[in-house]
Every structure is written in structure tokens, then in C-alpha cells.
Amino acid sequence: MNAIAIAAISLFIFVIGYRFYSKFLAEKIFRLDPNYVTPAHRFKDGVDFVPTNRFVLWGHHFTSVAGAAPILGPAIAVYWGWLPAIIWVVLGTVFAAGVHDFGTLVISVRNKGQSIGTLANKLIGQRAKILFLFIILILVLMVNAVFAWVIANLFITFPSSVLPVFIQIPLALWIGHIVYKKNSKMLVPSLIALAIMYFVAIISAKVGFLQIDLVKYMGGADAAGIFGLGAVSTAFFIWIIILMVYVYIASTLPVWRLLQPRDFINSHQLIVGLGILYLGLLFTNPPITAPMTNPGADDVSWFPLLFITIACGAISGFHGLVSSGTSSKQLNKETDARFVGYAGAVGEGVLALISIIAVITLFPTKEDFLATYSSFGAASAGGLGTFVKGASQLAAGLGIPVEVAATIVSVIVVSFAATTLDTSVRLMRYIIAELGVEYKVPVIAKTHVATTIAVVASSALVLIPEGPNGFGSGGFLLWPLFGTANQLLAGISLLLITIWLKRLGRNYLVTLIPMIFILFMTLWAMIQQVVFQWAFWGSNSSPLLFIFGAIIMGFAIWIILTAISSLRSTDNTKIDLDD
Amino acid sequence: MMLDKVKQLIAFYEEVLSMPHRQEIARELRNEDDLFLLLLYSEMIGIPNPVYYYTLELYPYMIEKFHDWHLRMGMEKSPMTGIRCC
After folding, report:
1. What pLDDT does A306 receive?
2. Contact A521, A487 (CB under 8 A)
3. Of A151, A250, A265, B73, whose Cβ has the fewest other Cβ atoms within 10 Å?
């Protein structure tokens, strides 16, 4: 089996899924109506509600949902061998993610473009909305913690990526300024910025003293750092503090000043990255050295953890927020929902697929793979570094020198992760403020108070849990938690669509089955980790992770109970389709 | 022929990029507008404000905008008896 064949077969299944399954959904289940007046036309205000060409909307939708998560998850999950990971990405995208993204878009369009949180309030009740807010709060908290750790890890592994990543900040500020103040076009400036970044990346890959290597400054990995920590731990500590200070500033600035210009640069990077990887795959046709399945991986069972490790790229609740929050307000025709929602999910699947292929073709022999992926912990900690090396090997097939390619790929991944971090800290601030208003504590609704809470909570989550590799390595224990929180969100969205379809008297199995599957996996994984690992009697006790895991477990049980009660209820009042 | 296609592609990409930005700018403008309306409105119900001298002249220009504003704020009917937009 060679890598091109795997990619071709998977892409072919994606195409078949879009061609037939999404068509079936559009015609038989959601019954899209080309003449339906979408919210974009009905409430047209030139700000939130703007009818948009479907290709433009798809582009925007795809660049909003594709980030570092669909790269990192699969890069960890190949630990159990490449076959389960590929199968889950392909089938998950076709039968779960596609349905979920498409469904959230349709249900939102049919409900005045309201977001999933508001719909939860309407279809299930007041408690559902608060629960929903808390789940999102946990999700963004996990994102902050995981991605801060991921970025610090990449900075330490690839010191040449530090400078180009930091160059991006003034460049983004410059773009924001000229576009906003001078009203110029943004394509050319953002391409110039990208060129400068990659130029700096090439230079710093070649020139030693431009590589900001904290570990080397302290005298190598075995030297002592501050507070009695080792050099690597100290480097982690310093990077995480710097990152947290950065996100504090970035998330309190106006959106157009830093966050949006970074998004422009990142959407170029997404195209560059996908282009380089798939072209590199075509040109080099690398052999697959990783095992098809890994029977030696018995420290953590693939069932259910595989389905949690790959969340983005197979199904992700975060997409529902984008679908129902922004895209649904800009849908020109209801029939466009199939393209925007379903094909958006397929785009994410394509990214996850190349991430898997980059990792499984990297190693010269199977033994090397097994040495790197020796345990689940090692896979989590090294997954992203392995992806960067694998991707740079694919890029080398296009004649790009390996060390330059490694720098550029790590710059791409860090840029994605950093933008995700900005956005999620900002989201967390909004939610804390909303909860403050909800529970009559107006003081925490203030911008700086809410941001401080967000940043401090995230830092605590990264820095406190003790991982096997010392300080800061507790971070990768959080990845499964991030996955579960994300899947819970998807579970709620699928539940809402199921209830809605049931009340319309239609076949709701298309969303019920993925929902049951996801909730079952989430619950199972959390029971395994919370009860047997993180509890104080467990094998790897950690009070903080235990608390978070227990909360997520409680939420999962609550959703399941709600689902049972609302699906069994005789409340079959037909709902108005245009409500 | 080929060049046209490339131009089309670039224009399309530009549009994808500028979509969120255009939205953000529109939102900022709208907020400014709302503030402006608030000033005029406060003047109408007799709270002193610095721009009060000019406001009555603007009433005919404002009435439509005021209508949009109170719909946005979630009020079905005009909240003021003085302004009869609906």
C-alpha cells in the first residue's frame, strides 16, 4: 500500500460522500428549498446578515474551522497504527462531521440565524443554555491550555521558528493599520507579509544566532534553570508566560487590529501548506513505514481513545459554533448549505488526512516509528514535532531544503495555534462576562477582569498538572480532555438537530446514530481516565485533571438523559418550519 | 483566456479575505451611528447634551434611521410618541 493510493482512495470516498450522501441529506432529510428566504435576505443589515456567494462563504467557513487541531490530533492518533486513524477520519468526516456541520447550518438558517446556544434554550430549555455555556467555557479553557503548551513545545523543538512567528505580530499590526485607515486592498499587503515571514524563516534556519533557543542559552538540556527546575522546564515556563502575556494583549485589542490581519496571513498559509504537502506527496511517493496497526500499543487502548484523540478532522463541535454563529447569517440560498457545511467538513478531513500521511511516511523503518511512538505519552508529546519533520520531508520532494521546510512548517502550525489561542481567549472572555451578567456579578463582566480570569485559569491548567517529562508536560494530558469537550459540543448540536427532525416528523437516524456513537465514546473515555487514572486512587493521580474530567463526565451524562427524555416525550407538536 | 481566469481567481480570493473585515468595519460604523442617535435622542427627551443646538434640524433625516434602530434594539413599535415612524 503506498501513500498516494491511500490518499487517492480517501479523497475518492470524500467525493462520493459529498456527491451522494450529502445529496440524500439535502433532498430527503433537510429538504432544502431553493425558494426559502434565508435570514441573510430577510434581516439584511449589511453587517451580520449579508447574502454571500457560496464559494466565498465556503472559503471563509473553511479558513475559520481549519487550524492546528486537525493536524495535531491525527499526528498523535497514528500511535495505534495508520489504518484506524485513516478509517476514522474518512468515515467520521462523511457520516458525522458532514452531517453535523451541514445540520447546524440548516437548523440555524431555519431559525432566523440564531446560534446553537439560543436554539438549545428554545428546544430543550433554560438549563440547556447555561450548560451549553459551561461546556464552551471548558472547551476554550482546554484550547488555551493545550495550545499554549503546543506552541511552547514547538518553540523549544524548532528554535528557528521563533523569530518568523514573532515577526508576524508587527506585520499583522501594519496590515490592520493600512487596511483600516487607508482602506486599501488586503491581498497584496498580506502576501508581502507572508513573503517577509518566510524570508525570515529561511534566514533563521540557516543562521545559528537568529535561533532563539532558550535551552541552549541556559547551557543545554541537562543544565539547571530557575526555581530548581531543569533547563527544558524553565524554557517551557518562560515561553508559556510570554504567550499568556501576548494573548492578554491580543485578545483585548480590537479585532481588526491584530486578529483579523493574522487570519488573512494564515489563510495564505493554509493554502501554501496544503499545496506543498499534496504536491510533495505526488512527487516523492514515499513508502509507508509505520505499521498498519500497532499491537504493541497496549498502555492506552485505541477504543475509545482514538475517537477522542481525533476530534477535529472527524467531527468537531466547534464547527457548529461557526456554522450557526456566522455562516448561517450569510447564506444566500438554502440549497447552498450543502456546499458550505458539508464541503467545509470535507476540507477539514483533507487536512487531517495529509497530517496522517506526513507522519506515517517519515520514518526510514518500522522500528524507528515504534521507537518514537513508544507510549501514548510520547506520542502526544512528540506528535506535532513528528508531523513537522514528516511534512518537511514531503516538501523536500519539491526541492525545498529540509531544515528550511521544517522551519516553515513549524511557523505554519504555530501561526494556526496562536490564532486559535487569541480567538479562544477572546471567546472565553465573552462567556465569562455573559455568565457574570447571568449570575449578577457585574464586576467580572469588565473586559480586563474577565481576561485576567481567562488567562490565569489557562496558565494554571498548563503549569500545575505534573506530567512525566517534568514541568509543563502536564499539557499533553489535556489533549484527550480537549477532544471530549469538543465532542460533547458536537453531541449537543446533533441532539438539537435530532429533536428538530423528530418534531418535523422526519427520519432522524442520520443524526441520532453519530450522536449516540460520540457520546458513548466520550463517556467511556472519561470513565477510563477519570476513574482509573486521575482519581486519587488512580495510577496517575492528578486532582485538577480529575475535577475537569469529572465535570465533562457529568455533562455527558446530563446530555444523554436530556436526549432520552426529549426523544421519548410525546411532545410531538409539529413545529413551524419557519420559526 | 487563462489570464481572465487567474484574475477571477484573485478577485474571488480577495473577497474571501475581506469578508470578515468588511463586517467588522460595518459593525464599528453602526455602533458610531447608535451613539449619535443616542445623543439626539437624549436631546429630544430633554437631557442636556453638547450638540443640542443642531438636533431639531436633523429630525426629518433621522426618522428612517431611528426606525431601523428601534427594530434592531428589539422594539416592534416606536418607543417615542414624538417620533411617529410606525
Report:
1. 94
2. yes
3. B73
C-alpha cell at A361: 511516511
Decide: helix, strand or coil at residue A508. Answer: coil
- Tell whether A178 is covered by a domain: yes
- The three cell numbers locating residue A130: 447555561
Of B16, B21, B72, the CB nearest to A59: B16
CA nearest to B29 within chain A: A47
Nearest to A336 by CA among A125, A2, A38, A13: A38
Question: Which amino acid, one-letter code, is at A159?
Answer: P
- Cβ(B17)–Cβ(A190) below 8 Å: yes
Calpha distance A146→A152 (Å, rounded)? 10
- pLDDT in the model for residue A570: 65
Residue in B closest to A48 by C-alpha: B23
Query: Which among B10, B24, B72 has CB closest to A187?
Result: B10
- pTM: predicted TM-score of the whole model, two decimal places: 0.90
On whether the CB atoms of residues B26 and A47 are closer than 8 A, the answer is: yes
Among A95, A66, A153, CA closest to A479: A153
Residues of A in Cβ contact (< 8 Å) with B17: 186-187, 190, 264, 267
A204 alpha-carbon distance from chain centroid:
29
Which residue in this structure is represented by grid cell 452531517? A99
Whether residue A338 contacts residue A118, with contact meaning beta carbons closer than 8 Å, is answered with: no
Q: Between vectors from CA B23 to CA A448 and to CA B51, what angle results, nearest 5°?
A: 70
The answer to whether A105 touches A327, Cβ cutoff 8 Å, is yes
Residue A25 included in any domain:
yes
DSSP string, A422-478: HHHHHHHHHHHHHHHHHTT-GGGGSHHHHHHHHHHHHHHHHHSSPBTTBTTGGGGGH
Q: CB distance A56–B10 less than 8 Å? A: no
Question: What domain count does chain A have?
Answer: 1
- Cβ contacts of A179 on chain B, cutoff 8 Å: 21
Please report whether residue A116 resides in a domain.
yes
Q: Quick one: pLDDT at residue A457?
A: 92
Q: Which amino acid is at A349?
A: G
Report the pLDDT value the prediction gives residue A356, as an integer from 0 to 100.
Answer: 96
Segments of chain A with pLDDT less than 50: none
Which chain B residues are Cβ-neighbours of A340 within 8 angstroms?
none
Q: In this predicted model, which residue has the larger pLDDT, A447 or B78?
A: A447
Residue A573: the pLDDT is 64
Residue A577 lies in a domain: no
For A454-473, b/e burial (b = at least 16 CB within 10 A) is: bbeebbebbbebbbebebbb
What's the confidence (pLDDT) of residue A516? 94
What is the rounded distance in angstroms from the CA atom of residue A37 to the CA atom of residue A39?
7
Tell me the residue range of the domain where A370 lies: 3-472+481-568
> What cell numbers appear for A242 in the block?
510570554
**CA-to-CA distance for A184 and A468, rounded, in angstroms?**
51
Chain A nearest C-alpha distance from B85 (Å): 19
pLDDT for A329: 93
A60 → closest Cβ in B19, B28, B30: B19
b/e map A99-125, b = 16+ CB within 10 Å:
bbbbbbbbbbbbbbbbbbbbbbbbbbe
* Residue A276 and residue A413 in contact, taking contact as beta carbons nearer than 8 Å: no
